[in-house]
Known about the structure:
Blueprint: E1 15-16, H1 32-45, E2 50-52, H2 64-78, E3 84-87, H3 93-106, E4 110-113, H4 123-136, E5 142-146, H5 148-151, H6 157-165, E6 171-174, H7 179-192, E7 198-201, H8 207-212, E8 217-218, H9 227-238, H10 242-255, H11 269-283, H12 301-313
Parallel strand pairs: 1-8, 2-3, 3-4, 4-5, 5-6, 6-7, 7-8
Amino acid sequence: MSTDAPNPATAPIGGVVPPLVTPLTPGYDVDTGSLARLVAHQLDAGVSGVFVLGTSGEGTFLTDEQRRTVLSVVVAEVAGAVPVLAGAIDTSTARSAEHVTAAVKAGADGIVCTAPFYAATHPAEIDRHFERLASYAGGLPLYAYDIPPRVGTKLPDDLLLDLGRRGVLAGVKDSSGEDTSLRRLVLARRDAGLPGFAVMTGSETTVDAALAFGVDGAVPGLGNVDPAGYVRIAAAVAAGDLAAARAEQDRLFRLFDIITVPDRNRMGASSAALGAFKAALYVLGVLDCPLTAFPSVPLDEAEIAGVRALVVRAGLEPVA
């Protein structure tokens, strides 16, 4: 075997890297069988990587033992085919550092962390946070996760790029929902001469446009359900076929309507969105149970039927 063959697990991150949900049993344990099928669902679609224990993965809802189970199963099932990024998301640097250590031990290929949250932070403290976490990462790439609605602060471009310049951060997943600021970051990266600093969008609905203006890839929660659709968008943009990319994005835009099916008068936004993703995977036969982590309110039978109808409308095939 040639030693010159590229190792996909160590290649720069880009392409489609879905943030995997964490399947649960009716007793709220990690459903390892369903998780293995979910990994196969992603690999069969040709994704470029997977991200576990993020927002879609309900990482902050899980016990440390459950987090380790998720990491163990996914790393084993992926078996080096693509990079496995592990969320090490917690309120403080010390707690996040413990998750970083666990991810390194489990064999993850990269680490994803937010800024500290709950307590208000200054950019100087966020800088110190990422520097400390990088020291625990054992040489693995560390990616910032910019999600202001959950963390309470927007990561400044100059801070991100300075951390990139210093070798602390390898890139950022932008889930701010602010396409203008995302495009500004892409331009600032170019001006700073940091082409290796990965910029990934967390959007489900504007992936075609973001790839066209220069982001490196996408981390879409809806990619759990239809990873092949996002892979087709990325391939179309790379081929210069923006019309095909737009058509596929339009189809996925409509599929994203599944998050509007759950009754928001009886549950929160996370219960609705993650419940819809899991319900779609349930009707597709990937998950055995659509339950979300406690205390999230589960979808009822009528809501699951509504999700099923939109899955069919999108051209996907539920199990009988």
